[in-house]
Amino acid sequence: MIIVWGNKHVYRTIGFVADFCPLCRGIKGFLLRRVGLAGHVYYITSGEGKLVGYQRTCEGCKTIFNADAEKYASVIKKAASLDDLLHQTYPTLPIVIAERLALEEKVKNTPALLSSSERQELLRAPFALLSPKIEKQFARLQFDKEIGFSMVGVIVFLMIFPTLLQNFFPKHQEESLLIFIALSLIFLGWQFFTARQRFIRHQIIPVLAKAIRPLNPTESEMKSILDEMRQQKHKMGSKLKIDDLIDQLQNSN
Ligand SMILES: [Zn+2]
């Protein structure tokens, strides 16, 4: 008998805090979670494991960042408003990040006044922040709702197909069933093949476009960032289609 054992990450929700999100370009509510590393047997763990860190998930764009739990005055279960959350969990934040908030004001109101290095940095950061999300997704088996629906569709059809065949093609039942199974496999294979592109289109591009839209980037600026990422072997550089990003930037203005 093979016993499956090892270590795995255990996440425990602690509560909500206010913090700055560089993708939403402002102060947002975050879900704070403790990350522990615990031994597992057959992926079943007991306890929350040894502390390895904290992470915060932005309530606006759902991006996960590493967190320093020590800096929050408190963590609360749920605040009535963002002001309330800020006041209770991180009242000094507007002072701590005053410089960044001033820069974001400039992005919003007078982007033409940004220096070229400020602009480059503000444009590059969202790509760099979202790249790990793509790397993580590409490292695991792709399974999304489209694949789920396709599989259910194939199974349901396989249940009713033999009866249909009996009624309409009584002489070619076996051949028809084999053709159907072959077509289903091709269809499911295609769904798996395109799942990664769907992930980028649905989970990455809307957040990325929202973050860079205030800077009104040109196609060549975005292209050079993606080229650079490709050279540095970031999957984002080769898998993110610039046309999809341009469409998103134009369509949801
Ligand atoms: Zn955000």
Walkthrough of the structure:
This protein is of the alpha+beta class and about 250 residues long. It contains nine helices and five strands; from the N terminus they run βββββααααααααα. Strands 1, 2, 3, 4 and 5 form a five-stranded antiparallel beta sheet that branches. The chain starts with a strand and ends with a helix. The structure holds zinc ion. Zinc ion binds near residues 60 and 63.
> What portion of residues belong to β-strands?
15-25%
Largest sheet: 5 strands, antiparallel
**What string, H for helix and E for strand, traces the elements in order?**
EEEEEHHHHHHHHH
Helix content: 55-70%
- Alpha plus pi helix count: 9
Indicate the overall shape: globular
Given the helix and strand composition, which structural class is it? Answer: alpha+beta
Low-confidence stretches: none
Number of distinct beta strands = 5
Bound molecules: zinc ion
Number of domains: 2
- As a whole number of angstroms, the C-alpha radius of gyration is 24 Å
The residue-averaged pLDDT reads 89
Report, as a whole number of angstroms, the end-to-end distance: 59 Å
Please sum up the structure shown.
This protein is of the alpha+beta class. The chain contains nine helices and five strands. It folds into two domains: 105 residues, no CATH class; 115 residues, no CATH class.
Properties at a glance:
2 domains; globular; binds zinc ion
Helices and strands in order:
Elements: E1 5-21, E2 26-41, E3 44-45, E4 50-58, E5 64-67, H1 82-89, H2 93-96, H3 98-109, H4 116-139, H5 145-168, H6 173-212, H7 219-231, H8 235-239, H9 242-251
Antiparallel strand pairs: 1-2, 2-3, 2-4, 4-5
Helix pairs in contact: 4-6, 5-6, 6-9
